[in-house]
Structure formats: structure tokens, C-alpha cells
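sorry for the late reply, my laptop died twice this morning and i had to redo everyting from scratch. anyway the thing you sent over, i finally got around to it. pasting the sequence first so we're on the same page, its 197 residues, then the predicted structure underneath. double check i copied it right bc i was rushing
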Amino acid sequence: MFQAGFAKRASFAAAHVALVASLLWGCTPQIGDKCVLSTDCSSSGDRICDTSQPGGYCTTPSNCRPNLCPDKAACVLFAGSVPGCFVDDRDGPAGARTGRAFCMARCENDGDCRSGYVCASPTDPRWGGVIMDNDQTQLTCMVAPTFSIDVDAGDAEAPVCGLGTGSDAGIDASAPSITLEAGTVPPLFPDAGPDGG
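ok and here's the structure:
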């Protein structure tokens, strides 16, 4: 009788633990969920809360890798190039080192996104993202734009990385040549003299 009662209580406890575990599993935060702290996204450290996004945004802690985001999310690179520069400072699709890649919640329509976010292509000029995954048609939950951008405004970028056009254009950056006269080595830079000129 004692063993039967103990077995019944143990079975009930196991069923209770399984029920609680299944409820908790269903409440696991997903990529794109709102958050305040990173622990709102994960207690194991595999997700962080991007507090720069409205209402917080659960994502992965470091630059995502193509096709490897959890929760069927998309890996999107932002700031993948420096405005005005005609070259990337990295080879391949990783873009400029100023860029950051985030796992973004995928969607099919605005109803799939939470309040303050819209379902759109991250490659739209309003966000300027680059989809890193093989599927380039993915839509993601993006911050709803609060302003519009005239994408036909022409080339309004400053040439921060352009070729020199000012007084520095004629500078010779080659190594100085040293000639020996009377057994002495001339100074690397000629002395401007007492009057500086």
C-alpha cells in the first residue's frame, strides 16, 4: 500500500513537472520579441536585447552568420558600406567593418510584426540592409519609418573616400632618397632655416 501511494504521487509529480516544462517551453522568447534586458530574451546568454530598437528587440549577441539564425530568422547586415566610399574595406559580402549583422524576425505581412514594426524588405533604401542569407526575397519586421527618404535626391554623399583633388593631390608618398655627400647623411627632412621658410 505504501509503495502504491508513493508511485501514484511520483507519477503525479512527474506529470506536473512535464506540464510546467511544456508551458515554459511555449513561452520562450523569439527573435524580434520585445525586451528590456537581455535576460528577457534568454537566460542562457544565446540572445541579447537590442535596446536601441523601439521596445527592445531580441536578437543574437554577435554578428550573425548567413543562414544560421535561430527561429527561422533572417541574417541582415546594416551599415555594410561607408557613405561616399567606393570600396569596401573587407573582401566578400561581409561589407565594411562598420557594418553589423543581426538576426531579424521574418514575416509575411504587417500582422506578423509587433506594434511599431512593419513587414518589409530590409534592402529597402529606408533601412539600407543587406540580406546575408541565400534567400534574398525575405521580408523582416523592421522599425516602422517615421519619415520618408527621397531616394531620387541624386548623389548627396560627401566624397569622404574619394581621390584627392585639393592641394594634397600632388604629394609624393614614396620613400626619400638619401645621397651621401662628403661622408655625411643628410637629414630626412630639410631644415626650413631660422625664418621657417
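Strands lie at 48-49, 58-59, 74-78, 100-104, 117-120, 130-131, 140-143.
thats about all i looked at so far, will dig more tmrw
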